[in-house]
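Hi both,

Apologies for the delay on this - the queue was longer than expected. I finally got the S-adenosylmethionine-bound model through. Below you'll find the protein sequence and the ligand SMILES exactly as submitted, and right after that the structure tokens for the full complex including the ligand.
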Amino acid sequence: MDGLKVVQTADGSSTLYSDRFNACYHSVNGALTESMHVFIKSGFEAILPNRHTIDLLEVGLGTCLNAALTAYAAEKYRVEVRYFGIELYPPSDDILYSTGYAEILEPECATLWGKIVKAPATEKVQISPWFSVFKIYADYTQWIPTESFDLIYFDAFAPDDQPEMWSLENFRKLFDALRPNGALVTYSAKGLVKQNLRDAGFSVERLQGPPGKRHMVRAWKTPVH
Ligand SMILES: C[S@@+](CC[C@H](N)C(=O)[O-])C[C@H]1O[C@@H](n2cnc3c(N)ncnc32)[C@H](O)[C@@H]1O
């Protein structure tokens, strides 16, 4: 199915493995744990103070796990999230359902996940009173943003597997699309990633990583005074 197969990870949640990229969609040390640590706790919760709405871009929408966890968090914190997810190779519904996310996520989160999976691309779909999704099925390296964002989840395959996704040119594009005081979070703290982010204009913070990874990165667009 799609050159994708389901693999189990250490926290009991599953993820996908891609033959095309010879890579997993999440950490084998715990898919759900990684998503919660990198994207929800270090990204979403970090930019929450004083915000009522968040425009969020995810690079690499994949299984929609990060999106579902964010929709769940949007309800919890009562903040309106407009979520834009870019994906070049959308997995089929069959492979997505075989991840078991519909069974292992909290029931309310699982319902949100099912609705996000079913949402068509290229239109804004209201998933809950707090969360809408707009799927963009396009090549991120060729894509020109037309919106501005407060937060970016950068969840491409690793720089060694897909270096073009992490290029200076592409980070510049994201920097320009980010609003002042906005942030980008990603699981990779590789030297070249931090350097390209800095050269693109970001203020780079190195944070503790999820299990199995020493560090991760949060990069801010600090306002110019
Ligand atoms: C690490 S996985 C993302 C996992 C995802 N965030 C999730 O929660 O399941 C990387 C994703 O990037 C997608 N991708 C690869 N090349 C791309 C490109 N040029 N443009 C957009 N998406 C791309 C892959 O198909 C894959 O879904």
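Main takeaway for now: The chain has one domain: 31-220.

I'll put the files on the shared drive as well.

H.
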